[in-house]
Amino acid sequence: MKTIIEPFRIKMVEPIKLTTRSEREELIRAAHFNPFLLRAEDVIIDLLTDSGTSAMSSEAWAAMMRGDESYAGARSWYRFRDTVQDIFGFEQVIPTHQGRAAEHILFGMLVKPDSIVPNNTHFDTTRANIEFVGGKPVDLPCRESDDIDSDEPFKGNMDIAALEQLVEEKGPERIPVIMVTVTNNSAGGQPVSMANIREVSRIARSAGIPFYIDACRFAENAFFIKRNEPGYENTPTVDIAREMFSYADGCTMSAKKDAFANIGGFLCSNDAELAQQERNILILSEGFPTYGGMAGRDLEAIAVGLREVLDEHYLDYRLLSTRYVVERLVGAGIPVVTPAGGHAVYLDARRFLPHIAPLEYPGQSLSVELYIEAGIRSVEIGTVMFGFDPRSGEEKPAHLDLVRLAIPRRVYTQSHMDYVLEAISLVWQRRRDVRGMKIVKAPKFLRHFTAEFEQI
Ligand code: F0G
Q: Is the pTM of this model over 0.85?
């Protein structure tokens, strides 16, 4: 059968409020042309993020009812810890309220003011958490990631030669940790190959530098390896995941992605001494080590979600449904990052709106137009997000100007995606009339969340 079906039935629904175009024009103006500032109920299809927006299963909801809310040593903690240890293979498991809390604790322990932290591409909270303690995040994406149109299967890889050079030039003393983000969210949601993870691990180990994986979308990444990396066709996805983590010394995880949870995360390693110090910080900022920043019921939901996300029928549907959107856009000649990643579709706003200069934020304009056209909420990943250097106060065009349409897990159906495709093509037809933006108010750090804009 060629028809993609959602491998689940819908048991509970959440009505969507439909709005008119003129209402949306007013709403986005009132939100200062920043989709983050809209009320969610004024959005028809919310593709702002795949984080914390998944639909949980009947099993996960049932498990939540079993949540043991004991302060210390709850049953739910052991279920959570055992599941994490089984899939990720690390001895030390530290529960946090979301991924960035794990980053905050890890970098607070390892990063010093002169430190350099390489990553294939840092996610914005990862970057900010390193900068917050005075370190310098360095992105080392592979060369193929520059070519938006190339169909290379593992464009999320790290540039191995660049990593070797950095380690050689700066020396292991200045590099407290090497990270690889799977999948590479800030570079098109592209996967990282097992071969690349193995190489990064080899370099890290020979230099004596800890190697951590930012594991948010580990199951999607593992399934890309199964589909596209020779030798893994017949390996169960859970074993691919185990192998990925076997090369690392630890991981940070946001359970809001590939664990289907609405909140939660964890930090893992095999270093008992480090973990003890991390637990001291955990107690100050998150909670007791057997619940961290979560309720017992959250621990239960994650334990179920981590198993469900590795179901290959689910993963097959997940990757196919993202590819469905990307292939139709390619077919219509609309510029989009290819090949399709796992959790999101990334429109190339610079080529979609070539008459808008990068410093007039083509990604922001496109995102605003998708809202006006059809009530779709997306996020700019470009010059608004990355163009401003808070230290120098200077602004320059980001590497790329993309608009990310992140697809919440098990939430929208194929007809919702057809609606999204129609909306994009309607904006494409009137693209020459779309205007650029200027920022009228913005904070210094992470300005994309709260900046206010005007149309030029
Ligand atoms: N790392 C990556 C690769 C992420 O994509 C995110 C979050 C985090 C870390 C932080 O996790 O939100 O649980 O604190 N990404 C979301 C997104 C917010 O929309 O891509 P968190």
A: yes
Bridge partners (DSSP) of residue 389 are 394
Task: Using most ligand atoms within 8 A of CB, pick from 104, 120, 257 the residue to mutate for ligand 1.
Answer: 257
Verify cis geometry, omega within 30 degrees of 0, for the bond prior to 183. Answer: yes
CATH topology of domain 21-50+311-455: Aspartate Aminotransferase, domain 1 (3.90.1150)
Question: Residue 347 in contact with residue 17, Cβ under 8 Å?
Answer: no
Atom of ligand 1 at shortest range from CA of 379? 19
* 145 CB-near residues (< 8 Å, 6+ apart): 121, 155, 156, 157, 184, 187, 188, 190
Ligand 1 contacts CB of residue 186 (under 6 A): no
Tell me how far apart the alpha carbons of residues 90 and 249 are, in angstroms, rounded to a whole number. Answer: 8
- Give mean pLDDT in consecutive 10-residue pieces for the chain, a chain of 456 residues: 89 96 98 98 98 98 98 98 98 98 98 97 92 95 91 96 98 98 92 98 98 98 98 98 98 98 98 98 97 97 98 97 96 96 97 98 98 98 91 90 97 96 98 97 90 96
Question: What value, to the nearest 5°, has the Cα angle with vertex 187 and ends 303 and 410?
Answer: 40
49 CB near ligand 1 (under 6 Å): yes
Q: Ligand 1 centroid to 249 CA: how many Å?
A: 20
- The CA distance from 386 to 383, in Å, is 5
pLDDT for 390 equals 80
Would you put residue 372 in left (φ > 0), alpha (ψ -120 to 50) or beta? alpha
Say how many Å lie between the CA of residue 123 and the centre of ligand 1.
7
DSSP string across 332-359? TT--B-SS--SSEEEEEHHHHSTTS-GG
Whether the Cβ atoms of residue 119 and residue 214 lie closer than 8 Å to each other? yes
DSSP 207-226: HT--EEEE-TTHHHHHHHHH
Beta bridge partners of 406: 344
Residue range(s) of every CATH 3.40.640.10 domain in the chain: 58-308
Cβ-based neighbour number of residue 276 at 10 Å: 11
Q: What is the pLDDT of residue 22?
A: 98
Assign domain 58-308 to a CATH class.
Answer: alpha beta
Note if the bond before 339 is cis, omega within 30 degrees.
Answer: yes
- Positions of CATH 3.90.1150.10 in the chain: 21-50+311-455
